[in-house]
Design brief:
By secondary structure, the chain is an alpha/beta fold. The protein is 39% helix and 20% strand. Strands 2-1-3-12-11-4-5-10-8-9 form a ten-stranded mixed β-sheet, with helices on both faces. It has a two-stranded antiparallel sheet with strand order 6-7. The radius of gyration is 20 Å and the shape is globular. The chain starts with a strand and ends with a helix. The structure holds nicotinamide-adenine-dinucleotide. The site of nicotinamide-adenine-dinucleotide (NAD) has 21 residues, from loops. GO terms for molecular function: isocitrate dehydrogenase (NAD+) activity; magnesium ion binding; NAD binding.
């Protein structure tokens, strides 16, 4: 079956790594029609927004997208394209697995955890205002509906992926109402899944435990901001941002796949970016599309190239280019 997929190359290293992922998917024999869409910092001058309506229409039609990173200005300028995409497509669950890849230099050997990040609310509501000059209020929104929805997604994910434990991460000792509501919803959902162990952990203690004993974690579910921070921490446990893929899942099965990393302006255009994070995001996309065999082949090829350790990009201490590592993965398919 031929899949029509919206492809957003994005900014910075985005076009380099998306091209690598497209080559690998095609080399694995998956029939795809890529609907290329422009979004990101570079299109703002042309369309007045980083996410033109055509991009949204394309994803709504195809129900699946593969996306490169998009640059977001700090402090000023247009709203985040990523937040806009997540909001307009109602992509409420962000799934970020972090698993040790043999051969990739990292501090640990047995990390295998999945962060499920609530993607639609919290401090990302974008509701900020100046109360009086020198005082800013930024609103953290937590709702029962979104907390129950992400809780159910996390437990169902754990169940369908053969996982044994869900850890809810919070700061309900301080934010008694907001994080208290989030926890209360998680407890309610956990009672429907007695076969899955449930635990709660305060976010600061979670950071310490992830750094000291990452193997104790399985599925972790949390609000938006904690998920943003802890998933970068998790990628640091497995060799860095070059290896962390992710899925953004919406209601009705709509899904957008992207790497956890950003547009890396410091190395953009030099063809030295590590494409593996986006290739592993494409593996998640193929599983979502029911292309299990191709997904397994690509994942095994990445593992083989990493285990051999001959071809490595600069972030892994090597000097291979994006194209060279992509060629090695294709040769290993
Ligand atoms: P970043 O992830 O772009 O880069 C952090 C560091 O990691 C840099 O040194 C970079 O060179 C390195 N790095 C990242 N990806 C790499 C790869 N594939 N291979 C090798 N090295 C890699 O984070 P940043 O610098 O904080 O953000 C840059 C821009 O990206 C910002 O505008 C930010 O808003 C945006 N961003 C976008 C997304 C997204 O589109 N989903 C996610 C995060 C950040």
């Amino acid at each position: 079956m031929k899949h029509t997929i919206t492809l957003i190359p994005g900014d910075g290293i985005g076009p380099e790594v998306t091209e690598a992922a497209v080559r690998v998917v095609e080399a694995a024999g998956v029939e795809c029609e890529w609907e290329r869409m422009e979004a990101g910092a570079e299109v703002v001058a042309k369309y007045g927004t980083p996410v033109p309506d055509e991009v949204i229409h394309s994803i709504l039609k195809n129900r699946v997208a593969l996306k490169g990173p998009i640059t977001t200005p700090v402090g000023v300028g247009f709203p985040s394209a990523n937040v806009t995409l997540r909001k307009r497509l109602n992509l409420y669950a962000n799934v970020r697995p972090a698993r040790t890849i043999p051969g990739v230099p990292s501090r640990y050997d047995h990390v295998d955890l999945v962060i499920i990040r609530e993607n639609s609310e919290d401090l990302y509501s974008g509701l900020e205002h100046i109360v009086v000059p020198g005082v800013v209020e930024s609103l953290k929104i937590i709702t029962e509906a979104a907390s129950l929805r992400i809780g159910r997604y996390a437990f169902e994910y754990a169940k369908s992926h053969g996982r044994r434990k869900v850890t809810a991460v919070h700061k309900a000792n301080i934010m008694k109402l907001a994080d208290g509501l989030f926890l209360e919803c998680l407890r309610r959902i956990s009672r429907e899944f007695p076969e899955i162990e449930y635990e709660e952990m305060i976010v600061d203690a979670t950071c310490m435990n992830m750094v000291m004993r990452p193997e104790r974690f399985d599925v972790m579910v949390m609000e938006n901001l904690y998920g943003d921070i802890l998933s970068d921490l998790a990628s640091g446990l497995i060799g860095g941002l070059g290896f962390a893929g992710s899925a953004n899942i919406g209601e009705g099965g709509i899904a957008l796949f992207e790497a956890v990393h950003g547009s890396a302006p410091d190395i953009a255009g030099r063809h030295i970016a590590n494409p593996i994070a986006l290739i592993l995001s494409a593996v998640m996309m193929l599983r979502h599309l029911g292309e299990q065999a191709a997904a397994n082949r690509i994942e095994n090829a990445v593992m083989k190239v990493m285990a051999e350790g001959k071809v490595r990009t600069r972030d892994m201490g090597g000097d291979a280019t994006t194209d060279q590592i992509t060629d090695a993965i294709i040769a290993a398919l």
